Amino acid sequence: MPAARGGPPATMRGPLARYRGIPCTPRAAPPRADGLKSRVGERSLAVTSTARSAKACPPFRSLSDLAEAASAATRGALLEFVESGAGAEWTRRANLAAFDAWSLVPRVLRNVREVDLTTRLLGTPVHAPFFASPTAYQGAVHPAGERATARALGRAGILGVYSTLSSRSLEEIASAAPAAPRWFQLYLQPDLTASEELLRRAERAGYSAAVVTVDAPVLGPRDLQSRGGFALDRPVPVGNGPGIRSPARELVPREKGYALEGGAEYSWDDFERLVKGTDLPLVLKGVLSPEDAREAVRRGAKGLLVSNHGGRQLDRALPSLDALPDVVEAIGSRAEVYLDGGVRRAPDILIARALGARAAGLGRPILWALAVGGERGVERLARLLSSELATSLLLLGRRSIAEVDRTAVRENRWRNPPPPHATGRTVGD
Ligand SMILES: Cc1cc2nc3c(=O)[nH]c(=O)nc-3n(C[C@H](O)[C@H](O)[C@H](O)COP(=O)(O)O)c2cc1C
What we know:
Elements: H1 36-40, H2 63-73, H3 76-83, H4 90-99, E1 102-104, E2 119-121, E3 124-126, E4 130-132, H5 145-156, E5 159-162, H6 170-176, E6 182-187, H7 192-204, E7 210-213, H8 223-228, E8 252-254, E9 257-259, H9 268-277, E10 282-287, H10 290-298, E11 303-306, H11 320-331, E12 336-340, H12 346-354, E13 359-362, H13 364-395, E14 409-411
Parallel strand pairs: 4-5, 4-13, 5-6, 6-7, 7-10, 10-11, 11-12, 12-13
Antiparallel strand pairs: 1-14, 2-3, 8-9
The structure holds flavin mononucleotide.
């Protein structure tokens, strides 16, 4: 039967049929209610026309549409803040390309009828082995900021990691979705006692672990961001209080070179002191070398997040996925290992899992979804990704995420990978 013009065939049943004839006319976004616009400047906060009219009309239809929808919904300095990588952005691109070096090896005729995605991340039960990596200033992306993210992820049973530089306080985020799985991300403060106080607040607010980011004593040089003018020294409100310090923006020239001034450069001893001073299990974020991984575990880290900050810090740092197997080998089962950087689709999560990551984090895609649809957008991303993961797992012939091991992947023998999907990895990817 020929397809009706502009829609699926009349006989079509299933998910696509829902979209037939439903008007999805974008409506102008409501005015911002939080005053951010006037404080930060209009150019930085141009989130436009993202609200959709009909309830049945999703903020974006598929994961392939998400990046494109985000680039249409944000523009100017905000888009550049989200997208930018450091320097020539080699690491940002390499994070994505690293996944193209691996293929999944499906097994067949295993009578898999149900798949189990659930797992525990340092004891926190979650519905699927992916999580929202911490990203600063979510209030600049959507007025509801981290509150929307927390509520959406809570409903989907997905772990959210919330930045020290969140637009809402860590207590507000917790009370927006008290039952949602959540970890706190700590940017080391120049004064160790200020870092300890943040950890104490996170404990009291019911966070179940803390992620200590150590790859950003100074911000990487982000040309795109400075061109767009999203300057972090402007008064973007930080929910955790006016005393909170972000990483130093740049080094200060000295007679013999350059120096970190007023920033937070810590040693392993300081990290150990943080471990001993808190009841929260600590995860070290920004580990790429097996030597650092071993030292972190020796000093009391319970988890390691293999990450290069989405290619925003040291350009030409190795892609997270390339670093993963050596880190896993170095520490064995002495700590949990996670990965972020370039994770966009379910097969990426499976590849990371097969190479030893217990779960994989998404940074930019969460912000894209937040920009496009606020709370509904983040929930849709979490649900689409969970469902794609379930389907992929079944097609891989595995019953549970725990069954995905090294036998599930093979390094590609051919040399020139096909170009990435035209819309799955856009917005500067
Ligand atoms: C806009 C933006 C803000 C970020 N803010 C933080 C932050 O506050 N703390 C942190 O540890 N990492 C931060 N990151 C890094 C992410 O946690 C994560 O490592 C990275 O985005 C993963 O790469 P992906 O964007 O390719 O998924 C940020 C990344 C982006 C894109």
